[in-house]
Design brief:
Oligomer: heterodimer
Number of strands of chain B: 11
Distance between the termini of chain B: 36 Å
Shape of chain B: globular
Order of helices and strands of chain A: EEEEEEEEEEE
Helix content of chain B: under 10%
Structural class of chain A: mainly beta
Number of helices of chain B: 0
Helix content of chain A: under 10%
Largest sheet of chain B: 7 strands, mixed
Radius of gyration of chain B: 13 Å
Shape of chain A: globular
Radius of gyration of chain A: 14 Å
Strand content of chain B: over 45%
Number of strands of chain A: 11
Chain lengths: 119, 107
């Protein structure tokens, strides 16, 4: 059974960089897209972007100037960096797996990690 | 970006009711439409993919239909554990986009 787990600081200061890592267990990280999605309190889901195991990335244009994703296949991990954060970046951040073929759906999700941007 | 619009935003229903949620895309997305269920404080869970395919382990009372721009999620007999928020998502192009959600509440 594939499992994902987000980790990183739960509190980030304004203007600093939010850094999260997702660790994948129970399956290989290869041959899938790995995604980040966030959800501000009481609001809907926002897709941040995805990375393939080859390193190919797609980012949401609304965040593209501030987002970087990377993957470490030897550790079965992938990461998100979001620079110059403001209070508007406070949210629960989810990592998820996207099938690279067929329906391209998000079939496995991490439990989510609350990140608060505050001084 | 492809805009996804769900309706209604919320609904009240009773156990045993038939519930229908609709999702409209701002352009054709063929059948690249997925449905997720999210319970309070939990991650979303995949219910339906490719518009009408039931994810493994999901009860058969859930079904999806549609193609192009108009899609429907149906719950044939609402159960207590189905009270949650439901999201549609297009996987036709990036950026992936979600509907705003439909909250299903107990009447």
């Amino acid at each position: 059974q594939v499992q994902l787990q987000e980790s990183g600081p739960g509190l980030v200061k304004p203007s600093e960089t939010l850094s999260l890592t997702c660790t994948v267990s129970g399956g290989s990280i290869s041959s899938y897209f790995w995604s980040w999605i966030r959800q501000p309190a009481g609001k809907g889901l926002e897709w941040i972007g995805r990375i393939y195991t080859s390193g190919i990335t797609n980012y949401n244009p609304s965040l593209k100037s501030r987002v970087t994703m990377s993957v470490n296949t030897s550790k079965n991990q992938f990461s998100l960096n979001l620079t110059s954060v403001t209070a508007a970046d406070s949210a629960v951040y989810y990592c998820a797996r996207e099938a690279a073929v067929a329906g391209r759906y998000l079939d496995y999700w991490g439990p989510g990690m609350l990140v608060t941007v505050s001084s | 970006d492809i805009q996804m619009t769900q309706s209604p935003s919320s609904l009240s229903a009773s156990v045993g009711d038939r519930v229908t949620i609709t999702c409209r895309a701002s352009q054709s997305i063929n059948n690249y439409l997925n449905w997720y269920q999210q319970k309070s404080g939990k991650a979303p869970k995949l219910l339906i993919y490719s518009a009408s395919s039931l994810q493994s382990g999901v009860p058969s009372r859930f079904s999806g239909s549609g193609s192009g721009t108009d899609f429907t999620l149906t719950i044939t007999s609402l159960q207590p554990e189905d009270f949650a928020t439901y999201y549609c998502q297009q996987s036709y192009s990036t950026p992936r986009t979600f509907g705003q959600g439909t909250k299903v509440e107990i009447k």
